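hi! just following up on the protien thing from before. the input was this:
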Amino acid sequence: MAETQVMQLLLNYPQLEVIEKNIIQAYEMMCRCYEGKNKVLLCGNGGSAADCEHIVGELMKVFWVKRRLPEREEEKLRKCGADSAMLENIVEALPAISLTSHVSFLTAFCNDNSAEEMFAQQLYVLGNPGDVLWAISTSGNSANVINAAIVARAKGIKVIGMTGASGGKLAEYSDVLMNVPSEITARIQEMHVPIYHTICAMLEGHFFAREESA
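and the predicted 3d structure came back as:
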């Protein structure tokens, strides 16, 4: 299934063939993360912050594949008062946290400390060895994203960088770099969306499609 989805991505966006291996490596890194019961944390600015939120939405709820809770988990919820409607709507998910989402923290930290460390601080507190940081920067030079990657390296957290063609400074701190072939911000962002949609679909298929067919 994963190979088919990558092939479809490249059919629709042939310019991404130059980073095909990188996309597959990012997917495999996230598979290992989730198989180890870890989580993915994401950061970016502006449109990339919106992408972080978007990715979390695809991972934390149904994307393409119907997901069901294991029977043992459903039984636990029933014993605590969950009705059938609740059990229908709560589904299995892949843990993901957007570090762009905590508005009260972000505004307080930027006001009291520095915007350049606002993601680094959260990653230092929330990240654990085995987690993955998905760092998005069209230029690859966003200081707050790079600082988060530095903390990730110190804490044993793998980094997936998603940038434009040059990769910028973020390339130095990325274990896998998905640097799409453009230097124009809008074009970079347009290519980022189908890449992360494909990765999320592959992850969902890997972890949940077998449950659906069982």
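The radius of gyration is 18 Å.
The beta strands are 40-43, 96-98, 132-136, 158-163, 176-179.
cheers
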